[in-house]
Amino acid sequence: MSQHADGGFLASKPYCCAASYVSKMSNYCGGCPYDPKDRTGPLACPLNALYWDFWLRHQDRFLNNPRIGMAVRQAANMAPAEQAAVRKKAAELRAGIEEL
């Protein structure tokens, strides 16, 4: 998401990932108290809600991008209640970012 702060000027695709990718590709999750498989629970990894919220907020812009359309469609196909939970959790995380 940080790599897309310029609005896509340097890259056609924002480079972002959810906790599952970080967990799979690194050892950063080993001692972490957050659950990389949970999106919105009290111990859900913050990366998950922020990742899915990013796609929900920007789905109109990226839906037809062949490089990332699948992630956008997955977010769009979430049940409305799950989308609302993701958006709420992401807003809470952004509001309390200093406490993470």
Description:
The structure is a single chain. This protein has 100 residues and is mainly α. The chain has a domain at 39-100: Arc Repressor Mutant, subunit A (Orthogonal Bundle). It is built from 5 helices and no strands. The radius of gyration is 14 Å and the shape is globular.
Quick rundown:
With 100 residues, the chain is an all-alpha fold. The chain has helices spanning 19-25, 46-57, 59-62, 69-76, 80-95.
- Overall geometry comes to globular
Count, helices: 5
Residue share in β-strands: under 5%
What's the CATH superfamily of the domain at 39-100, by name? Deoxyribodipyrimidine photolyase-related
SS-derived structural category:
mainly alpha
Assign a percent range to the helix content.
40-55%
Beta-strand segment tally: 0
End-to-end CA span: 18 Å
Major β-sheet annotation: none
Which CATH architecture of the domain at 39-100? Orthogonal Bundle
Order of helices and strands: HHHHH
CATH topology of the domain at 39-100: Arc Repressor Mutant, subunit A
- CATH top level of the domain at 39-100 is Mainly Alpha
Q: How confident overall, as mean pLDDT?
A: 90
Low-confidence stretches: none
- Radius of gyration equals 14 Å
For the structure shown, list the relevant keywords.
100 residues, mainly alpha, Arc Repressor Mutant, subunit A, 0% strand
Helices and strands, with pairings:
Layout: H1 19-25, H2 46-57, H3 59-62, H4 69-76, H5 80-95
Helix pairs in contact: 2-4, 2-5
